[in-house]
Amino acid sequence: MAGDCEMERARAFVSAQEWTFAKTMADIPHYYCLKSRTADCDEFLWFARLLTENSVEGEFYGKKYRYFFLDEWKYWMMDPTPEECDLINRERVSGK
Fold first, then answer.
1. Which of 23, 54, 74, 75 has the fewest C-beta atoms lying within 10 Å of its C-beta?
2. pLDDT per residue over 17-76, tens digit each?
3. What is the pTM of this model?
4. What are phi and psi of 8, to 5 degrees?
């Protein structure tokens, strides 16, 4: 599991990103950030790896994803590996 230093680094990463509302799925409110818009692609890859290594399996419309929880958000990617990831999603966790 991620340690305190990694969690602080993760918080710094997510706060530095430009999160865009996914308006094509407004009925399922969530946001995304793009690797192409990040200032540091190495940090994007680091976060995608952290997400993969510290996530739990969940299901959405019959498809399985891995979710990483940080503060009031859950994060996930749709690509098979962090190296292929070009978009990270996030959704506010209910009740927070």
1. 23
2. 999 999 998 888 999 999 999 999 999 999 999 999 999 999 877 888 999 999 999 999
3. 0.90
4. -65, -40
Residue 42's identity, in one-letter code, is: D
Could you tell me the end-to-end alpha-carbon distance of the chain, in angstroms, rounded to an integer? 22
* Length of the chain measured in residues: 96
Do 35 and 82 meet the contact criterion of CB atoms below 8 Å apart? no
CA 54 vs CA 36, 68, 76: distances in Å: 24, 6, 11
Number of helices (H) and strands (E), helices first, in the chain?
Answer: 2, 6
Residues whose CB is less than 8 angstroms from the CB of residue 26 and which lie 6 or more positions away in sequence, other chains included: none
What is d(CA 55, CA 74) in angstroms, rounded to the nearest whole number?
9
